[in-house]
């Protein structure tokens, strides 16, 4: 027969159990806080920019000298017909921006890249005029520059000001 009597229990056992649980929760909170720093993976887009310059029938551009906080996160070069290059960035304002250069049909390319956006004025960047586009939900801004044989689009959730920084950094490769 058991000699345990619930009436003889003390708060000591419960306090020890609660202390262990609180200790485990504190350790978990410290580990989660320590590892919570944002780590955005960065890619090197220069090899794709150089390949674009070698294979494209048009003037190739790539960003140079972007301010701190711009992190290239993806690059995708298609050397088939038509030649296109897409580079994604995390911006200093924690938004996404994308550079798209290609020899596709300009209207189809603008329609796809701007999310069916409508003209929203113009921006002057580096002495050149870029067409502004804004999608229907007013969350995707785009800047479009059309040249002979190539369309250059800077687009994303960033505002026009951030996109103008990216557009202004484009230099001939």
Automatic annotation (TrEMBL):
Query: What InterPro entries does the database record attribute to this sequence?
Result: DUF4245
Q: Which UniProt keywords apply?
A: Membrane, Transmembrane, Transmembrane helix
Sequence intervals crossing the membrane: 12-32
Task: Identify the Pfam families for this entry.
Answer: DUF4245
- The organism sits in which domain of life? Bacteria
Report the protein name in the record. DUF4245 domain-containing protein
